[in-house]
Amino acid sequence: MIILAGLIAGISLQAQAQLKTEIEKRFSVGGYGEVALSRNFYSDNVYRYSSSASHKGEQHGRFDIPHAVVYLGFDFGKGWTMQSEIEFEHTGTGGAVEKEFEEAGEWETETEKGGEVELEQFWIQKSFHPAFNIRMGHIVVPVGGLNNAHEPLNYFTVYRPEGEYTILPSTWHDTGISIWGHTTHWRYEFQVIAGLDAYMFNTENFIKNGAGSPFEFKTANQLGLVARIDNYSVRNLRMSLSGFYGRAFNNTYPYEELPETSRFYGVKGRTAIGAFDFAYAGRRFVARGNADYGYVGDAYAISYMKRNRSANNAPYKKSAVGRGAVAAGAEAGYDILPWFNLNDKEQKLFVFGRYEYYNSYIPDQGEEPAQWTAVNRIALGLNYFPLPQIAVKAEYSHRFLKAGYNPEPSISIGVCYMAYFNR
User: Fold this and answer.
1) 158, 176, 384 from 364: Cα distances, Å
2) Distances in Å between the alpha carbon of 92 and those of 64, 84, 86, 402?
3) Which listed site, 38, 266, 275, 353, has its alpha carbon 20 to 30 Å from 330?
4) Structure pTM?
5) Burial tier of 102 (Cβ tally within 10 Å: 0-12, 13-18, 19+)
6) Is 257 helix (H, G, I), strand (E, B) or coil?
7) Pair 135, 151: CB distance under 8 Å
8) Which one, of 174, 179, 200, lies nearest residue 190 by Cα?
């Protein structure tokens, strides 16, 4: 910035103005964020499913800032651009070194607060034509409706839609190469990314944690292939297909080449995901929906190995992974504000409803089913838009589990924004 200021100071006022305007055109700053306040009329005890009768009638509250994101981008010219996205989840993370006088004055490192700070995007792109672009770096993996449109103004609920958020990484981001482009009615994207880690799969979240890494690097002994295609032929409607395929077994650190005598020799952990999603945005009516299915080959072998061979302090999940998982849902909202004859056309008030079903654990042969993973959920509420970039949300939601488990109703309110600040 000092060098830039010196360059600007050394030229005429007119040239300074032109240079400043050019920089402003090329530099983009934006982001999104959300605040959520909830009262959950069910227990948050870890044994609420294994001992549901003991936790009947319990409730708890949670206040949170799920995501606060900053976009920074720059157009270098001649088709070269860059984009970065820094995300603070749950207000970030914090630690401190303190002197504990109750423990003989020893210095201790303590966790002051939970949360995460992540670089969700950092890529450099070369654009040859609207129909052909190459992007390399840390990129969003657009499998499913939520990962493709994960900003809070793209769904009605206070929190992200539960089904896809439960079984898929969200926001799914990984390092790799993307080729994408668009025409009048079509958009396509193909990606090669680092593969998933089967040791991070689990009962509650299927493959969700497999995209992360507890290390300073992302293990890439195996690669993943991603494809997405969007169609815009019908006015105001987008229909999309997306998917992922890759081997997830032995994509860990340190790498271990299993001998032919091992009972796990030949285990691949082939993982496949297929998804359909759509979004319709009319003048007053908005509807969105998704249907996702995931499959993990060798799920029984992976579950056995995770439970019996990983070290006690290894950063891996030890619960079983199912051979499959499913999530399907739809939401619709209608703007009722015109009924009140207001002249401000920027304001909107949507009454919405959402239904979804998801199951994060369809067991492999030999594994016991986990009945609590199958969930039906409804949400009803309001979204008020005082401006196109801001929404105030309120909802009542209810999870319906199988007989023998306590129902899980909740009330939530939230406020969120999504905007570019220099446009």
Assistant:
1) 34, 31, 44
2) 11, 18, 11, 36
3) 38
4) 0.89
5) exposed
6) coil
7) no
8) 179
Angle between helices 2-9 and 13-26 (to 10 degrees): 140
pLDDT band for position 256 (cuts 50, 70, 90): confident
Residue 265: the pLDDT is: 80
> Which residues partner with 391 through β-bridges?
416
Q: Are strands 80-89 and 94-100 parallel, antiparallel or unpaired?
A: unpaired
Q: Supply 314's token pair.
A: 């290894």
> Is residue 81 reached through a cis peptide bond, with omega within 30 degrees of 0 on the bond before it?
no
CA 326 remoteness from chain centre: 16
Q: How many residues comprise the chain? A: 423
Full DSSP string of 342-391: -S-TT-EEEEEEEEEEEEEEEPPTTSPP-GGGEEEEEEEEEEEEEETTEE
Nearest to 274 by CA among 235, 237, 240, 304: 240
Q: Between residues 106 and 88, which one has the greater pLDDT?
A: 88
Name the phi and psi angles at 192, rounded to 5. -120, 120
Side chain identity, residue 128: F
| Tokens linked to 167 | 């079984």
Mean pLDDT of 87-101: 75
Angle at 115 between CA 37 and CA 200, to 5 degrees: 115
Q: How far apart are CA 217 and CA 222, in angstroms?
A: 14
pLDDT, tens digit (0-9, with 9 covering 90-100), for 175-211: 999 999 999 999 999 999 999 999 899 999 999 999 9
The upper half-sphere exposure of residue 89, i.e. CA atoms within 13 Å in the direction of its Cβ, equals 10
- At 198, give phi and psi (nearest 5°): -65, -25
Q: Evaluate if residue 311 carries a pLDDT over 80.
A: no
Contact of 328 with 351, CB cutoff 8 Å: no
- Specify whether the CB–CB gap between 225 and 192 falls below 8 A: yes
User: Which amino acid is residue 65, in one-letter code?
Assistant: I
SS3 210: helix
